[in-house]
Amino acid sequence: MPHDYSKHFKRGRKKDLTLDEKQKIVSGLISGFKINAISKPISRDWRTVKKYLANVNNIRTRRTKGQHIVLQKKHLTHLKQEISRNPLSTSLQAFAPAGIDKPVSRAPVVASCKL
User: How many CA atoms lie less than 13 Å away from 45 in the CB half-sphere?
Assistant: First the structure.
């Protein structure tokens, strides 16, 4: 019978620390508990607690995704041709000759387009 490893290896990230969790971390630190002892009751990794304590005043902001535009088939064909001509070009350099007005992002085209 195969063993289920999914409970040991969870992928993805949890949500940001809640205010209640932050208060428990600070109160645990004031009480003299070690980081590992603070992290277990709130079910967070000790590295998460350590990172929070390293910079308590840091307010985490999530990145917004770039603009996405719908491409017609002919534009996609032109874009693929331009990428094959210049594989290391940025999206600005690839989208302009292909006749597309706005780039998806400023990342290299190879990383942002699935061919």
Answer: 10
d(CA 51, CA 98): 45
Which residues of the chain carry a pLDDT beneath 50? Answer: 103-115
The whole-angstrom distance between residue 79's C-alpha and the CA centroid of its chain comes to 26
- Residue 62: exposed, middle, or buried by beta-carbon count in 10 A (0-12, 13-18, 19+)? exposed
What pLDDT sits at residue 41? 92
Residue 87 in 3-state DSSP?
A: coil
- Token pair, residue 68, equals 């996405």
Instruction: Write down the pTM of the prediction.
Output: 0.44
**Cα separations in angstroms, 88 against 55, 71, 93, 111:** 37, 21, 10, 10
Q: Residue 69: CB partners within 8 Å, gap ≥ 6?
A: 100, 102, 104
What phi-psi label fits residue 97: left (phi over 0), alpha (psi between -120 and 50 degrees) or beta? alpha
